[in-house]
């Protein structure tokens, strides 16, 4: 999704509410000031607190690469995090300028090379070159009034064995503190364990706080923090849908994605259980992902569809951030069946044969629903840590809609693994969705290729 799209007029009431809410909650000292915000992490009254311009600040944020800043502010968010200073569509300057205009603060990612991609943290010349590159980025953006903190690397512990990575992180943190006295430093970890925390305490003590990233397992974060021995300040920089590595799988190994309503319920429970419940050490969080991306499917982690509609998870986050539900609630998906089976029932079809599909969606009385159906090949990606994936091939012409919530699928002629997607789009820019993985077997008269 291109975050530079103009927000349509149908979102105007929500945007006005969000703008008013943000204006009362954010800590920008002077909208005309061009100086940096003074951001501090302090321990007061037995708890850790983030301060912006001497005012308490709790992060109500989202991971936002190409997503819509305006709708984030409208929903009551006050911050977003990036994974790099320049995302390829907008420069760091454009990102920060736009954030300031929207009353948002930015945890700016500093993209460090990863061991799993072949970088050697024992190579002193390569490490020094990286530090110089990062310093140039810090110097470029350190005085921007929308900057909140620096996030040094993302999930550097994932598939990593060399503890010298944390020496490099520590050197970058020290460099930042020398040239930028106004913004804290952190790094985002893939999960948490005692061994990992012990390494960071030894090799990267200069960091001001830690950031943790966890998905379905985030409900165990309070216990994991205790077991790891971390009693300092932290934020959660990624959390959201159940990960594709955490869910059930079909008999042929396809991960089973939860539908939009199950995800929305999980987001609320995970936030209340693992984030809002910690009033001592947690400085807030960034939900993943305020936008859309391909990772196993086009819908797994994004809170918006590729066609830009908001899903029920956006409604939930607005409620959690503001205590107020949006005026127009998203459709709720109550069930989805292919050949009278659900996604977890190992749906196997015969090549070239026809099968009934049905979806049950509940929507507000004044919302008109439009249904979109599509078939995709199953993803063969084996990437980890959110690395780039190619979207699987779409197969048009296999679904004919019979009525509002039902359709007829003609199974592909080639044997193999596929998914049937359904999207219920309403007249307010909201949507529900689900998909069912299925496997096509060759028929007795089929000329389908072997898997």
Short description:
The chain is an alpha/beta fold and 451 residues long.
Descriptive notes:
- The protein is an alpha/beta fold and 451 residues long.
- It folds into two domains: 9-322, Glycosidases (TIM Barrel); 332-441, Immunoglobulins (Immunoglobulin-like), CATH 2.60.40.10.
- 24% of the residues lie in helices and 26% in strands.
- The protein is built from nine helices and 19 strands.
- An eight-stranded parallel beta barrel has the order 4-5-6-7-8-9-10-11. A four-stranded antiparallel beta sheet has the order 12-14-17-16.
- Helix 4 (124-141) links the parallel strand 6 and strand 7.
- The longest helix is centred in the N-terminal third of the chain and has 18 residues, at 124-141.
- The chain is globular and about 70 Å long.
- Residues 117-217 form the Glycoside hydrolase family 2 catalytic domain.
- It comes from Pedosphaera parvula (strain Ellin514).
- InterPro entries: GH, Glyco_hydro_2_cat.
- Residues 383-407 are annotated as: Disordered.
């Amino acid at each position: 999704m291109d975050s530079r799209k103009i927000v349509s007029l149908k979102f105007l009431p929500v945007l006005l509410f969000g703008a008013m809410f943000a204006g009362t909650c954010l800590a920008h000292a002077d909208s005309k000031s061009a100086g940096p915000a003074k951001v501090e992490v302090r321990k007061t009254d037995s708890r850790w607190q983030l301060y912006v311009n001497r005012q308490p600040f709790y992060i109500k944020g989202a991971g936002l690469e190409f997503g819509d800043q305006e709708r984030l502010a409208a929903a009551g968010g006050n911050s977003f995090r990036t994974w790099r200073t320049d995302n390829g569509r907008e420069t760091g300057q454009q990102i920060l300028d736009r954030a300031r205009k929207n009353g948002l603060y930015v945890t700016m990612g500093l993209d460090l090379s990863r061991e799993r991609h072949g970088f050697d943290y024992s190579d002193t010349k390569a490490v020094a070159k990286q530090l110089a590159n990062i310093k140039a980025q810090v110097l470029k953006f350190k005085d921007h009034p929308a900057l909140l903190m620096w996030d040094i690397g993302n999930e550097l512990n994932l598939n990593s064995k060399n503890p010298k990575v944390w020496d490099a992180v520590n050197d970058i943190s020290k460099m930042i503190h020398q040239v930028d006295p106004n913004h804290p430093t952190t790094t985002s970890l893939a999960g948490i364990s005692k061994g990992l925390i012990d390494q960071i305490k030894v090799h990267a003590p200069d960091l001001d706080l830690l950031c943790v990233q966890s998905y379905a397992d985030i409900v165990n974060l309070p216990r994991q923090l205790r077991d790891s021995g971390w009693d300092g300040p932290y934020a959660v920089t990624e959390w959201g849908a159940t990960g594709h590595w955490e869910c059930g799988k079909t008999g042929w190994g396809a991960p089973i994605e939860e539908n939009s309503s199950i995800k929305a319920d999980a987001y609320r429970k995970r936030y209340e259980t693992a984030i809002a419940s910690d009033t001592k050490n947690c400085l807030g969080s960034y939900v993943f992902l305020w936008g859309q991306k391909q990772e196993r499917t086009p819908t797994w982690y994004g809170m918006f569809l590729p066609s830009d509609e908001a899903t029920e998870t956006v409604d939930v986050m607005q409620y959690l951030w503001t205590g107020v539900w949006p005026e127009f609630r998203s459709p709720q998906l109550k069930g989805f069946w292919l050949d009278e089976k659900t996604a977890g029932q190992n749906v196997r079809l015969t090549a070239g044969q026809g099968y009934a599909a049905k979806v049950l969606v509940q929507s507000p009385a004044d919302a008109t629903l439009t249904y979109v159906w599509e078939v995709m090949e199953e993803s063969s990606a084996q990437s980890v840590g959110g690395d780039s994936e190619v979207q699987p091939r779409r197969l048009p012409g296999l679904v004919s809609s019979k009525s509002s919530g039902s359709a007829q699928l003609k199974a592909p002629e080639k044997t193999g693994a596929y998914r049937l997607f359904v999207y219920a789009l309403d007249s307010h820019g909201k949507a529900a969705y689900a998909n069912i993985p299925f496997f096509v077997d060759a028929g007795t008269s089929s000329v389908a290729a072997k898997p």
